[in-house]
Write a structure and sequence with these properties.
Layout lengths: L4 E4 L5 E3 L2 E3 L1 E5 L9 H10 L1 H11 L1 E4 L7 H11 L15 E3 L2 E3 L9 E4 L11 E8 L3 E2 L4 E3 H11 L1 H10 L1 E7 L13 H4 L5 H11 L1 E6 L2 E9 L3 E3 L4 E3 L4 H7 L7 H4 E3 L7 H14 L10 E5 L3 E5 L2 E2 L3 E7 L1
Parallel strand pairs: 4-5
Antiparallel strand pairs: 1-4, 2-3, 5-18, 6-7, 7-21, 8-19, 9-18, 9-21, 10-20, 11-19, 12-14, 12-17, 13-14, 15-16
Helix pairs in contact: 1-3, 4-5, 4-10
Length: about 325
């Protein structure tokens, strides 16, 4: 039990084996955490073990009703959990640093959906935990749906065992063409300078090599090739297999003036993925997902090994910020 936080129910939650997904925490009415940011931060530090156990059992925690109104306050919340920061190197989404370790979430246009993915599943060094914060709630839409990864693996294995066997045997190869600079009109519009945090091609090569990524320089950009890398991982802390990939996101969403999503991801042996099974997987992801409308001040903590996330299209304004942790 917690002194400062109470677990509440909201209509969108799902229940798996009597565990709620996600867990939703609100302030204990007898505590000062509802109206005092300093008390809230102190309570987070004092109850880290409580949060660790809850996150491990559920996979995601929504903090609602707490005094978090600004990017700076959100940065303080992230810092209070004590997780080490993960620099955003190798990711595809265009982002802008706001304050401290806080960035904008994917800045692609509001009419575009961002398909389900584990954050940075296409590179070897990915975050273990993600924070999202709603600074400005959308006029409509704009949810960040989440879905449990092991549930998707189990359903895909039951329906398409041969396909899953091939994924486990060969893994996936991801291919993406980057321009020099960021393209905010694209959900994967991060240029190579931002991707590798340098303006020097030699430095970019070194950082790509460290990620296990091959670069092929082009006239007006660079082709990045990552893989083969596993599409399915084993979560050693929960003792189960997980659907840890960006396959659906790449196949259905890595589309812009430079990139053809049909070429963005293949089996690790170079063979194309079957579009009918990818579309079936997309349907399963949607059916099993939880989409909670954002409210101003919401903080969502996701275990990146437990859950995939997405973004629905929205009617502006909407400002959701993010922070990645090792």
């Amino acid at each position: 039990m917690s002194k400062s936080f109470i677990q509440v129910r909201i209509p969108q939650q799902k229940s798996y084996d009597e565990l709620l997904f996600p867990e939703v925490l609100s302030p204990n009415p007898t505590s000062a955490v509802a109206h005092d940011l300093f008390s809230f931060l102190q309570s987070i530090r004092a109850e880290k073990l409580y949060f660790q156990k809850l996150l491990h059992s559920s996979g995601a925690i929504l903090l609602r009703g707490f005094p978090v109104g600004t990017a700076s306050a959100f940065n303080d919340v992230v810092e209070s959990f004590g997780f080490e920061e993960l620099p955003y190197v190798g990711g595809a989404a265009p982002r802008t640093n706001v304050v401290g370790r806080v960035f904008t979430a994917n800045e692609s246009p509001p009419d575009q959906k961002i398909p389900f993915h584990h954050e940075m599943a296409q590179v070897p060094e990915f975050p273990s935990k993600l924070f999202f914060f709603c600074e400005v709630e959308p006029q409509s839409g704009g949810e960040t749906p989440i879905v449990l990864s092991h549930v998707i693996f189990e359903k895909m294995r039951a329906r398409y065992p041969d396909f899953v066997d091939r994924l486990e045997e060969h893994g996936l190869i991801y291919t993406r063409i980057l321009g020099e600079d960021d393209d905010p009109s694209s959900p994967i519009g991060r240029g190579w300078k931002s991707t590798f945090l340098t303006e020097d091609k030699c430095t970019a090569e070194k950082r790509a090599t460290k990620l296990g990524m091959r670069l092929e320089w082009m006239k007006d950009g660079v082709k990045t090739i990552m893989g083969p890398i596993p599409a399915i991982k084993y979560d050693q802390t929960r003792h189960r297999k997980i659907w840890f990939n960006s396959m659906v996101a790449a196949f259905t969403g890595w589309k812009d003036s430079r990139n053809d999503p049909m070429k963005a991801v293949t089996f690790g042996d170079g063979q194309p993925l079957p579009s009918d099974i990818i579309n079936a997987c997309l349907k399963i992801l949607d059916e099993e997902s939880v989409a909670i409308p954002w409210q101003k001040g919401d903080v969502l903590l996701i275990d990146n090994l437990a859950a995939l996330h997405a973004r629905r299209s929205f009617m502006p304004p909407r400002r959701v910020l993010a922070s990645l942790c090792k």
